[in-house]
Amino acid sequence: MTTLYRKPLAHKRPASSRAAFPIVLTTLLLALLMTGAAHMQSAKNPYDKERLLKVVRLNALSTQEIVQAIQQRGVDFQMTADIEAEFNQVGARPEMLEAMRQNFRGAKTASTKTTANPATNPTNNSSTSPRSNPNTTSGKVPPGAPLSKNEIVTLLQSGVPVTRVEEFVEVRGVNFTLNAQVAKEITTAGGNRSLLGAIGEKAPTNSTASTPNNSTNSPVRNSITPAVNEPDYDDLTDQAISAMQSNNAAGAIRLLQKAVAMDSSKPTAYQLLGFAYLYGNQNIASAETYMRAALERNGAATFRVYHDHDGFFKTYCQGTFFVNRMGVTFKADDGNHTFEAEKVKIKEVALNDFVGSEYGAFHVKVFQDDKKKSSKTFNFAPATTKKDESRLVVTLVKSY
Fold it and tell me: What is the Cα–Cα distance from 63 to 330, expressed in whole angstroms?
């Protein structure tokens, strides 16, 4: 993520927002997988260390949101000095470290009355034999019916290594034919050319292929995946995240619009739509529409910014600026600089006429005491270095 911001502002502007789309989106989008803490209600496993490290490193959620996520879901590891050092290196704030210490819950284990589903529980590798666990590479593939397209996509999205999925395809075959649209869905989910080649070799003829997208009666589901139903809200937002990471903004937008149609009360899809339109399509009008919809549902609008240190943007740090109905928050990627201001503490938010104006900068002036006699100014420049993005930040802060 930080590669986008290594060039000094004073010498060279960042890459265009279109070129930066996959990098910038990684910050927001991978982390939004964790937004069950604030907005998604479905039960999830406790966070494992590597996933939480990635979320903190990518700096897409505010400190408060990450703490809330940890408190709700817990973590499957116990804090040690070495682990604390790892999190410190990626910018974790003390509040996050304390939340990890207080919320160890261990990994969720399968009930003794049901067989664990290895495709949806990749952390469980002690009770499932390699003979039936698709997460275990080079394990023997159990016999079963050919795989459907949805089963392959589900396995990939669940974190099963692409090499292991290819092993299942080689042994069991597939019940669908490969075309451009199907290939796009599989690669978006994490497949590669080798997997597509295996699918192409194992694909049946059109006369013998069963329904390519569903195959709801396939007995393979009893051994490697649960029955694949129509995608729910979380499925659609997860697929949209994969699409945007592949620089497929149009595909992501279609998925997110389906999610909105399915449940218009949740903010997550609106947040992603706003981000996709801003950094993927450079459509600031549509971005504002969806960001407002997210804010109205107690979500947030998220912007990548530079934080000025010296009044001239000669020294600065990179981070994320969050706008919500309660105020604004900034957290640097390294965790060293943070900034939070409630609405009642904000004296002024406006575009800059001088400091960083060549980078489209804006400032937030915040009262420093309850009597509102003194204030401090914080300067930020948008990732796109365009004033239109700063105008959107200012407009949203003033509107809520």
Answer: 9
In single-letter form, the type of residue at position 283 comes to N
DSSP of 337-348, one letter per residue? -EEEEEGGGEEE
Strand, coil or helix: 319: strand
First to last CA, the chain: 29
Give CA 24 to chain center in angstroms. 11
Asked whether the beta carbons of 252 and 240 are under 8 A apart, the reply is yes
54-102 confidence digits (pLDDT tens): 667 756 567 877 888 789 878 999 999 999 999 999 889 899 999 999 9
Tokens matching residue 79: 């804090």
Tell me how far CA of residue 267 lies from CA of 32, 184, 396, in angstroms: 11, 27, 16
Query: For residue range 202-244, what is the model confidence (pLDDT) as tens digits?
Result: 888 644 444 444 444 443 344 444 334 577 776 687 677 767 7
Q: Which two tokens stand for residue 248?
A: 């497929």
Could you say which DSSP state residue 308 is in? E
Specify whether the CB–CB gap between 174 and 152 falls below 8 A. Answer: yes
Classify 187 in phi/psi space as left (phi over 0), alpha (psi -120 to 50) or beta.
alpha
In the chain, the domains with their CATH numbers are 118-225 (no CATH), 301-399 (2.30.29.30)
Alpha-carbon distances of 166 from 61, 189, 196, 357, rounded to whole Å = 34, 14, 9, 52
pTM score: 0.56
Contact residues for 285 (Cβ-Cβ < 8 A; gap 6+): none
- Cα 245–Cα 301–Cα 243 angle in degrees, nearest 5: 15
What are the tens digits of pLDDT across the range 304-348? 899 999 999 999 999 889 999 999 999 888 888 888 899 999 999
- Name the nearest CA neighbour of 235 among 120, 334, 340: 120
| 322 φ/ψ angles, rounded to the nearest 5 degrees | -110, 135
SS3 322: strand
Sheet strand arrangement including 362-367 = 338-342, 327-332, 316-324, 301-308, 375-382, 362-367, 346-351
Q: How many Å apart are CA 296 and CA 299, to the nearest integer?
A: 7
